[in-house]
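[retry 2/3] Interferon-related developmental regulator N-terminal domain-containing protein: previous attempt timed out, resubmitting with same input.
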Amino acid sequence: MPSLGLLALTAGYCDENLELQDSLTAMLKALDPLVSIVSSKCILDSLAIIAFVGEEYTEETKTIADRISQLIVQKPGSSVEVKKLSPDVIASAISAWSFILTTMGGEILDFNHWKELVSGFSSLLERTDPSILMASGEALAALFEIATSRHFPYDFVEDLKGRVLDQMRYDMINLLSDIENFLVVCIGLLYRIDLYC
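[retry 2/3] Interferon-related developmental regulator N-terminal domain-containing protein: success.
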């Protein structure tokens, strides 16, 4: 799979590159079962590179971005459950999607889709995996930056940004509290081990 991303970088994405177009179709279909973590991450990375190289092919890039966002933001009737995906795959999907978003400059989003994505990424902030938290935070930052450049309703965006930041602060405090409790338990265990050895 990584070779397809390299092929896109070397040969470029164009209508004449049939091998790349066929591979793109196959990769988009392969995202459904997500066979293994390694192959899923390779597919996501390759799709992000292909979208980057073929950014002037807006329809293909939008298709890739939409397909990846379906892995991240659960929609009713979706064939993939986000909760069943490994944290590594979710973080890779978020990073690939963010890369495509920043490459396209937000042109693939309208206001309603933007709101839906902000809501979806905000809900991922409730996860405890650090890689998901970091990737979600970066994606939200990119989304809010794009909202400014696309001139989405200022008051709505600022209100939503404030609520998301409040949620992030709250989640970080809880995470730090959990880490502190874990460290207290570890120190207690180390003390007991030292006492008995």
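[retry 2/3] Interferon-related developmental regulator N-terminal domain-containing protein: Residues 2-196 form a domain with the Leucine-rich Repeat Variant fold (CATH 1.25.10).
[retry 2/3] clearing retry counter.
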